[in-house]
């Protein structure tokens, strides 16, 4: 479904950046080829003793600027092409934010909702041991993504450490704090989405106080973005999950309390909307924070938001993007808007390397500094080159990777 499109989109975006930067065909060849792909079979003994086989992947798209870095997704729809696309996006994201990392992505095609906690643990540990030869704090550092969280990172860290014979906290980020995680990592992507939203409102001359937001996806990114935006004075008017959207809740905290207690969004006083109705609400800001291809040729025409801040990776198809541009909607692209997660993952990796841990003020200040710098570079590039923000962000990220290729040279 979304898979081929995320891959096609990512390649088309790269092609455009290569052309806009005036890079050569040799550059295109090196930039458009993933460096290492591992596909593994992951056997799982279910609690009823039945053995099932799952497909797992780890793609290291680039290691030119440092060890590769990227999340681990557990979702039934993932396949190799989508994993390559997401690893490619991670590469430009790390370069755009000037982190000393390449890009990676991995995952298992599995519906975690069907697994018990013990099954999830066994699957995570076996996946870790299958990809163990190519990961490590100096090689490739996984993190949580859709369908995984800090529990999975704890199991990955433990599996790697048991095999190494000593504790290696820096092999993954997004770990629990007691295992060497960083303060602020859980909320980092959402915090970064909120910073991006505040800056985009400034560019459009809209005051944050009372500005309205609709958020598609109420997971790690959507929830924390909603919390941070409410703190900034914005009004979150609708959110959705895979089952549909709701509006009419009093506050995100009240909705979250209901959600954690009842596993649904139907808090007292809420009204149901379809996911498409959420996308088409008359709001200042729309935040897609679920999966790829939420905004397509089919859904883009009806969008009335003035600003779109892409919390999810690749939520907009090229056709959808063209429609948004024609409508004059400011789109803050994924590789900028959701970079807060990898930025604080970088802080976690640095802290693990130094065995010296920062307070939350230091994390937040450094996160804000890096995001603001990337934001103003994208804003300036978009203005000076008369390109969209997405094109500007890709041009910045791709040009830094191309420059690193040139300076390192081609071996042998
Ligand atoms: P998550 O699994 O915590 O949450 C995903 C949310 O999306 C859930 O609320 C789910 O119900 C909802 N959802 C799934 N399908 C949907 C649909 N068709 N319509 C509406 N909602 C739907 O995942 P997450 O970590 O929040 O990641 C969300 C997106 O953000 C992904 O694209 C991910 O790659 C990207 N991202 C995540 C991070 C991170 O740090 N977690 C960092 C950067 C980018």
From TrEMBL:
<dbReference type="GO" id="GO:0004352">
    <property type="term" value="F:glutamate dehydrogenase (NAD+) activity"/>
</dbReference>
<feature type="domain" description="Glutamate/phenylalanine/leucine/valine/L-tryptophan dehydrogenase C-terminal">
    <location>
        <begin position="182"/>
        <end position="409"/>
    </location>
</feature>
<protein>
    <submittedName>
        <fullName>Unannotated protein</fullName>
    </submittedName>
</protein>
<dbReference type="InterPro" id="IPR014362">
    <property type="entry name" value="Glu_DH"/>
</dbReference>
<dbReference type="InterPro" id="IPR033922">
    <property type="entry name" value="NAD_bind_Glu_DH"/>
</dbReference>
<dbReference type="InterPro" id="IPR006096">
    <property type="entry name" value="Glu/Leu/Phe/Val/Trp_DH_C"/>
</dbReference>
<dbReference type="GO" id="GO:0006538">
    <property type="term" value="P:L-glutamate catabolic process"/>
</dbReference>
<dbReference type="InterPro" id="IPR006095">
    <property type="entry name" value="Glu/Leu/Phe/Val/Trp_DH"/>
</dbReference>
<dbReference type="InterPro" id="IPR046346">
    <property type="entry name" value="Aminoacid_DH-like_N_sf"/>
</dbReference>
<dbReference type="Pfam" id="PF00208">
    <property type="entry name" value="ELFV_dehydrog"/>
</dbReference>
<comment type="similarity">
    <text>Belongs to the Glu/Leu/Phe/Val dehydrogenases family.</text>
</comment>
<dbReference type="Pfam" id="PF02812">
    <property type="entry name" value="ELFV_dehydrog_N"/>
</dbReference>
<dbReference type="InterPro" id="IPR006097">
    <property type="entry name" value="Glu/Leu/Phe/Val/Trp_DH_dimer"/>
</dbReference>
<dbReference type="InterPro" id="IPR036291">
    <property type="entry name" value="NAD(P)-bd_dom_sf"/>
</dbReference>
<keyword id="KW-0560">Oxidoreductase</keyword>
């Amino acid at each position: 479904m979304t898979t081929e499109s995320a891959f096609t989109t990512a390649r088309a975006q790269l092609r455009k950046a290569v052309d806009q930067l005036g890079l050569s065909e040799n550059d295109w060849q090196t930039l458009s080829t993933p460096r290492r792909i591992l596909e593994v079979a992951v056997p799982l003994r279910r609690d009823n003793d039945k053995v099932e086989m799952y497909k797992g992947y780890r793609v290291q798209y680039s290691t030119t600027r440092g060890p590769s870095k990227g999340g681990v997704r557990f979702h039934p729809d993932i396949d190799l092409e989508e994993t390559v696309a997401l690893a490619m996006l991670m590469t430009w994201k790390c370069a755009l934010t000037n982190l000393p990392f390449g890009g990676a992505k991995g995952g298992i095609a599995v519906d975690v909702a069907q697994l018990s906690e013990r099954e999830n643990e066994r699957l995570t540990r076996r996946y870790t041991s299958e990809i163990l030869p190519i990961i490590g704090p100096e090689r490739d550092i996984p993190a949580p993504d859709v369908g995984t969280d800090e529990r999975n990172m704890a199991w990955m860290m433990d599996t790697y450490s048991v095999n190494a014979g000593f504790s290696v906290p820096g092999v993954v980020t997004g770990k629990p704090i007691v295992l060497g995680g960083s303060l602020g990592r859980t909320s980092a992507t959402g915090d970064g989405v909120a910073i991006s939203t505040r800056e985009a409102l400034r560019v459009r001359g809209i005051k944050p106080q009372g500005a309205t937001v609709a958020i598609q996806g109420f997971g790690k990114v959507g929830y924390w973005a909603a919390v941070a935006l409410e703190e900034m004075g914005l009004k979150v008017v609708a959110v959705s999950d895979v089952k549909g959207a709701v509006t009419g809740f009093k506050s995100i905290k009240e909705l979250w309390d209901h959600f954690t207690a009842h596993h649904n969004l139907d808090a007292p006083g809420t009204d149901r909307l379809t996911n498409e109705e959420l996308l088409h609400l008359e709001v200042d800001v729309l935040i897609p924070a679920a999966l790829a291809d939420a905004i397509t040729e089919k859904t883009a025409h009806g969008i009335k938001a003035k600003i779109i801040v892409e919390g999810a990776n690749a939520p907009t198809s090229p056709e959808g993007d063209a429609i948004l541009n024609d409508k004059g909607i400011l789109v803050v692209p994924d590789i900028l808007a959701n970079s807060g997660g990898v930025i604080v993952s970088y802080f976690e990796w640095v802290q693990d390397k130094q065995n010296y841990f920062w307070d939350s003020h230091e994390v937040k200040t450094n996160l804000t500094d890096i995001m603001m710098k990337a934001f103003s570079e994208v804003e300036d590039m978009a203005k000076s080159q008369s390109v969209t923000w997405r094109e500007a962000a890709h041009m910045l990220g791709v040009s830094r990777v191309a420059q690193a290729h040139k300076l390192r040279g081609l071996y042998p």
